[in-house]
Amino acid sequence: MTDNTARLDHVVLWVSDPVAAAHFYEQAVGLEPLRVAEFKEGAVSFPSVRVNEETILDLAPLTMAPRMNMVPGGGKSAGHPVNHVCIALTEGGYDSLRARLEEREVPVSDHGRHSYGARGPAVRSFYFRDPDGNVFEVRYYEEG
């Protein structure tokens, strides 16, 4: 049996304007912004948005790339291709998010059905891109 105690803590997204990105994720996606005021004041290097109680998305400015030297070549990760990040919601949350994105004229894909994920096949899914081109999949699973 697999030890399933690991949890996704955060994903770092490279963005051109962290404050605008935080606004997009708050207004269009419905995620809670974190440390935006502190970022504006210069007290922290980047803001974040909360996906759930255990997971955040860090919104790292592209200007940080040259300082990403914790591993050799770390700065070259800016612009490194990541296919997409997937967020699982309830059916109601899924429908609400899609409606908010469409209200803001954010292009969304057609609905996918039964694509495989962490909890098996999802009932429905769709994709969208944030203003910096990061691709997100949104899905929901059968509740029960």
UniProtKB/TrEMBL annotation:
Residues 7-141 form the VOC domain. Pfam families: Glyoxalase. This is VOC family protein.
